[in-house]
Amino acid sequence: MKRVTIDALQTMKGTGELITVLTAYDFPTARLLDEAGIDVLLVGDSVGNVVLGYENTLPVTMEVMLHHTAAVARGVSRSLVVADMPFMSYQVDASEALRNAGRLVQEARAQAVKLEGGEPVLKAIHRVVEAGIPVMGHLGYTPQSVNQLGSRVVQGRTRKEALALVESAQQLEEAGCFSIVLECVPAQLAAQITESVGIPTIGIGAGAQCDGQVLVLHDILGMTGDFKPKFVKRYADIGNAVRQAVEDYAREVRSGAFPNGMHSFALPEEVAADLARKEELPRIRRV
Ligand code: KIV
User: Fold this and answer.
1) Of 231, 188, 232, 229, nearest to 210 (Cα)?
2) Which of 239, 202, 1, 185 has its CA nearest to residue 114?
């Protein structure tokens, strides 16, 4: 099966074929998403809050991202694997950004990296792209800036903010990004940004006019309890299916209904008969 490439995503923008992106954090789900034909698997730093139980993405380290990205990369044969650069892995300076992006590609087999922000990270993007590592940008609500943004999730609602976002998107394209995630941006603004750049935009809470869509896998599978942002659509209720299956298992273990003969191994008849004659059993020597 042909791997999805950066060029293929660019072609999709040209032809209007919409790009599918989902988060993945481990081998079995990566394999399922790959088999289902998802174009891009994003090993998001959302692994921190979605899988590791942190309050937000800030505690996620390079080691965590390397561990999860490598597992995802082992599970795919077609999808493009993009790894998030975690908080403080690219903000200090461009050389450190390049070193860390290089680790995600070399040690964990990511094919591209994603980092958050506009003007302040342009130097880092340049440096990483120059080294031959494709970079996905991320504008709008940027979760690594949660302490600055606070609870105001939707970005670009004022004229000034909207124009600044359009400008940032163009700067990211000029810096060499191959695509841009637009998170929690009003739909009309996301449509204008999508028109104003030549690279694909991938929306999350950014309306239908982006070149593709990304969501967090656990959100669409109903595995995040009551947490359901407005932009998420639930396609399954796996959380309740898991709870039900585990309750069934526990009930059957407690009642003795599991395991039965179908789940057990049998001895050959003559060995079973020998063992049944008690004198054949080795004595335990006591000291
Ligand atoms: O970390 C993540 O999952 C993301 C997506 C929400 C775009 O950055």
Assistant:
1) 188
2) 202
What residues form DSSP beta bridges with 181? 138, 202
Q: How far is the CA of 116 from the centre of ligand 1 (A)?
A: 10
Q: Which two tokens stand for residue 122?
A: 């342009």
Domains of the chain: 6-220 (3.20.20.60)
Going from the Cα of 259 to the center of ligand 1, the distance in angstroms, rounded, reads 41
CA of 191 to the centre of ligand 1 (A): 20
DSSP assignment of 26-59 equals SHHHHHHHHHTT-SEEEE-TTHHHHTS--SSSTT
Compute the distance between CA of residue 134 and CA of residue 114 in angstroms, rounded to an integer. 9
Q: What would the pLDDT profile of 192-251 be if each residue is shown by its tens digit? A: 999 999 999 999 999 999 999 999 999 999 999 888 899 999 999 999 999 999 999 999
Closest among 77, 104, 66, 83 to 4, alpha carbons compared: 77
- From the centroid of its chain, how far is CA 13? 22
Structure tokens that stand for 213 in this block: 């869509």
Q: Which atom of ligand 1 is nearest to the CA of 114?
A: 8
- What gap in Å lies between CA 111 and CA 42, rounded to an integer? 10
Indicate which atom in ligand 1 lies nearest the CA of residue 116.
8
Query: 94-106 and 62-75 are packed helices; what angle lies between their axes, rounded to 10 degrees?
Result: 30
Q: Which residues are catalytic?
A: 183
Torsion angles phi and psi, residue 135, rounded to 5 = -120, 130
Contact 180, 118 (CB under 8 A): no
Nearest CA to ligand 1 atom 4: 44
Tell me which residues have their CB closer than 6 angstroms to ligand 1: 23, 42, 44-46, 84, 181, 183, 204, 214, 216
pLDDT in tens, 26-53: 999 999 999 999 999 999 999 999 999 9
Residues 6+ apart with CB under 8 A from 61: 86
